[in-house]
Automatic annotation (TrEMBL):
<protein>
    <recommendedName>
        <fullName>L-glutamate gamma-semialdehyde dehydrogenase</fullName>
        <ecNumber>1.2.1.88</ecNumber>
    </recommendedName>
</protein>
<dbReference type="GO" id="GO:0003842">
    <property type="term" value="F:L-glutamate gamma-semialdehyde dehydrogenase activity"/>
</dbReference>
<keyword id="KW-0520">NAD</keyword>
<dbReference type="GO" id="GO:0010133">
    <property type="term" value="P:L-proline catabolic process to L-glutamate"/>
</dbReference>
<feature type="domain" description="Aldehyde dehydrogenase">
    <location>
        <begin position="9"/>
        <end position="235"/>
    </location>
</feature>
<dbReference type="GO" id="GO:0005759">
    <property type="term" value="C:mitochondrial matrix"/>
</dbReference>
<keyword id="KW-0560">Oxidoreductase</keyword>
<comment type="pathway">
    <text>Amino-acid degradation; L-proline degradation into L-glutamate; L-glutamate from L-proline: step 2/2.</text>
</comment>
<dbReference type="InterPro" id="IPR015590">
    <property type="entry name" value="Aldehyde_DH_dom"/>
</dbReference>
<dbReference type="InterPro" id="IPR050485">
    <property type="entry name" value="Proline_metab_enzyme"/>
</dbReference>
<dbReference type="InterPro" id="IPR016160">
    <property type="entry name" value="Ald_DH_CS_CYS"/>
</dbReference>
<dbReference type="Pfam" id="PF00171">
    <property type="entry name" value="Aldedh"/>
</dbReference>
Length: 243
C-alpha cells in the first residue's frame, strides 16, 4: 500500500540522514568589479589584500580587475603606492606581508604569465622575480586593453592581478564580461555606493561566483559559518553572500 511504501522511504532516509554532505570546490579566476560610485580607498585596500595575501596562492584570490576610466588614474596611483609598501621575505619576520610561492613549478608557471604580460600587455608595477634565494615573485599589477586575454581568463594562483579599464558608460557590457569571460565561478566582489547598480549587479552576476561580496574583498568562507563552493568549473554552487 501507499502507507507501507512511504514508511519504507522514510526508513531509508533515516538511514542516510547523519552522513555529511560534501561540497566540491575547485579553481577560480576571481574578480573585483569597481563601479564609478565606489569608495576608492576601500576598493584599493581590498584588492591589495585579496590579490597578494599568501602571494596570491589561495583559490579565492582576486586576479582580474575591472576599473572605470574615471577612477583608474587615482586607483592605479593608490595601488602602486600601497604595493611599494609591501614587504616580501622570510615569513618568520612578522613585518613581512607575504613570502615566496610554494615551489619551483609554481614559480615557473607564474613567471610565464608575467613574461606574457611584458611582451603583450603593460606592467604597471612589479613584474620582477628571482629564485636565487627562494621562489620569490613580487606582487604585480598588469593592465590590459583586451578583456579576453588569457591573463584575464586563466587561473594563475600567484601574486598577479590584471586590470581592464572600461569606459564608464559601458558598465552594462562590463557586467556581461565579468559573467562570461572565464569558465570559473568561485568568488567575486563588486564595489559601489549606487544601490540600484548593486541590485542589478547582484542579479546579473548570480551565477558568476559561489561566494559574492559587496564592498569587501573576495576571499574564502569561515569554516562552520558559511558554505563555500563555486559554480561552473569551480564547484557545486553552494553560495554565500557577504555585505
Amino acid at each position: 500500500t501507499f502507507n507501507t511504501l512511504w514508511k519504507q522511504v522514510g526508513q531509508k532516509l533515516e538511514h542516510y540522514r547523519n552522513y555529511p554532505r560534501l561540497v566540491g570546490e575547485c579553481g577560480g579566476k576571481n574578480y573585483h568589479l569597481v563601479h564609478p560610485s565606489a569608495d576608492l580607498e576601500n576598493a584599493v585596500n581590498c584588492t591589495i589584500r585579496s590579490s597578494f595575501e599568501y602571494s596570491g596562492q589561495k583559490c579565492s584570490a582576486c586576479s582580474r580587475l575591472y576599473v572605470p576610466q574615471s577612477l583608474w588614474g587615482k586607483f592605479k596611483e593608490a595601488m602602486v603606492e600601497r604595493m611599494k609598501q609591501l614587504k616580501i621575505g622570510d615569513p618568520t619576520d612578522f613585518s613581512v606581508f607575504t613570502s615566496a610561492v610554494i615551489d619551483e613549478k609554481a614559480y615557473d608557471r607564474i613567471a610565464g604569465y608575467i613574461g606574457h604580460a611584458k611582451s603583450n600587455l603593460k606592467i604597471v608595477h612589479g613584474g620582477t622575480h628571482s629564485k636565487k634565494e627562494g621562489w620569490f615573485i613580487n606582487p604585480t599589477l598588469v593592465e590590459t586593453t583586451d578583456p579576453a586575454d588569457k591573463i584575464m581568463r586563466e587561473e594563475i594562483f600567484g601574486p598577479v592581478v590584471s586590470a581592464f579599464v572600461y569606459p564608464d558608460a559601458e558598465i552594462d557590457n562590463v557586467l556581461k564580461l565579468v559573467d562570461e569571460t572565464t569558465p570559473f565561478a568561485l568568488t567575486g566582489a563588486v564595489f559601489a555606493e549606487d544601490e540600484a547598480f548593486l541590485k542589478k549587479a547582484t542579479e546579473t552576476l548570480k551565477y558568476a561566483s559561489g561566494n559574492y561580496y559587496i564592498n569587501d574583498r573576495s576571499t574564502g568562507a569561515v569554516v562552520g559559518q558559511q558554505p563555500f563552493g563555486g559554480g561552473r568549473h569551480s564547484g557545486e554552487d553552494f553560495r554565500a553572500v557577504v555585505i
